Amino acid sequence: MKKTVQQKLADKKYKIPNALVYKLLYKLVVKGSLEKKYNPTYEIKDSPADCKGPCFVIYNHQSRIEYVWLMHACYPRRLNFMVGYNEFFRSHLKFILRLAHAIPKRNFVLDLPAMKAVDALVKKGAAICFSPEGMSSISGHNQPVVNGLGRFFKKYSIPVYIVRLSGAYLTNTKYCLDERKGLIKAKAELLYSPEYLKSATPEEIEERTNRELTHDDYLWNKEEQISYDGHGRLAHNLDQLCYVCPNCGKEFTLKGEGDEIGCRECGFKARLDDKYNLIPVEKADKLPATPSAWFDMERKQIRDMLHNNPDYVFEMRVKLGRLPSYSYVTNMKTSIPCGEGVVIIDKEGFHYEGYKDDEPTIMELDYEHIWTFGMPLDASYVSFYYNGDCYDLFPESGYAIKMLLVLEEFHRLMANKWKRLESEAWMDE
Predict the structure, then answer these.
(1) Which residues are in the Phospholipid/glycerol acyltransferase domain (predicted)?
(2) Do 302 and 322 reside in the same domain of the chain?
């Protein structure tokens, strides 16, 4: 019987990437082509190449193309990348991911096949590279690490290296898929020794990892003032991220076009310059300092609203996408259409009520089992896992950020397993 793509992934045996293949990828693709597009610089304080046994390499996940500077920062050490499970179903990525012996990982859920692959690779002396945040930055700053990271590190107690990235989000934002050449800085160093991991508690490891990964690209460039080539589209789709007008307070009345974002209701207007500075144009007295601060303002509003009204119910019509079983997703998509319905988020959890493959379907998760959505490509839609299967949710409005913020802040109100970062503690004051 023909195996599904899911079965093939579950049955795969993982190895350290072939030395010759890895060298060719590095020399021809990374050095010969991609680095020239992005202008990265490197500071190597400690290198995984100097580690003779197995190790982990972690990084602050800012964009979709970090493998470029991660490969350079760690070369000639060959990395086994941990990659989102859904990426292995995309036709343009399947070959390179298979060649690189990348590990498929279901985001934000327990994934036993992925942990089995990690275990086998550690025993083979591999360097396994992954982002503890679980997905690339939405707003330009980092998110909390996934629950269980401390226990995971303690289980293996092998060296953990960190590659700190700056400028990568400004090169590849979440709200616009354009590539904007400017400057990317990558700094590699040893973060945790085996001795530290054995002595620290899981909670201490997670708290410290969150602090070590804390970074905001917009704040960083407030100091650096590096120019990025936005092709005259620096604010294009910025309203996907910044959906609340800071002047009139209305939602979904903003439009980001060219280098400007404006409100069709009150006439508010602001401009992004090539250093990502927000410049007031019209009725912009309440303009946030940065797009990430704007995003945080929206989160704070959702947090306060839910604390004042825990019976709030969020509803939005969506189209549903799923992963295929015997084929791959084409045209740069992340799923195939399979239905439509309504997403409901309330104090009990997440609910999808509608159709899947022409069958009436209800999918429900409480806050012990869901605390955020994935955002696999841009800020216009989200993803989640249910019974091990990945689904995309495409809001008919085209706006997914409010749905994500409501889910996350309801989780924190009702369960709070995925705790807020120290840098965001002001939201609870």
Answers:
(1) 49-162
(2) no
- The half-sphere exposure of 342 on its side-chain side, counting CA atoms within 13 A, is 7
The residue from 265, 281, 306 where one domain ends is 306
Rounded CA-CA distance 85/113 in Å is 11
Kindly give the parts of the chain with pLDDT less than 50.
none
Length of the chain: 429
Q: Are 186 and 73 in contact (CB under 8 A)?
A: yes
Strands 314-322 and 336-346: antiparallel
Query: In this structure, what token pair is assigned to residue 87?
Result: 């990426």
What gap in Å lies between CA 105 and CA 303, rounded to an integer? 30
Q: Which pTM value belongs to this model?
A: 0.96
Task: Give residue 398's pLDDT.
Answer: 81
The enclosing domain of 137 has a CATH number of 3.40.1130
Other CB atoms within 10 Å distance of the CB of residue 289: 13
Mark whether 180 and 294 lie in a shared domain: no
**What's the pLDDT at 1?**
83
How many domains in the chain? 3
Both structure tokens of 108? 């934000």
Query: Do 167 and 140 belong together in one domain?
Result: yes
Phi-psi region of 377 (alpha: psi -120 to 50; beta: other; left: phi over 0): alpha
Look-up: residue for tokens 């960083």?
220
> What residue type is assigned to position 44 of the chain?
I
Q: How does pLDDT run across 408-425, given as a tens digit for each residue?
A: 999 999 999 999 999 999
Count of Cβ atoms closer than 10 Å to residue 219 Cβ: 15
State the residue range of the domain holding 245: 238-306
Cβ within 8 Å of residue 394, ≥6 positions away: 318, 319, 320, 321, 380, 381
Residue 222's region, left for phi above 0, alpha for psi from -120 to 50, else beta, is alpha
Helical ranges in 12-90 per DSSP H: 19-24, 35-38, 67-74
In a shared domain, residues 125 and 188: yes
- Which domain CATH number covers 376? 2.30.29.30
Residues 284 and 392 in one domain: no
Rounded to 5 degrees, what are φ and ψ at 263?
Answer: -105, 125
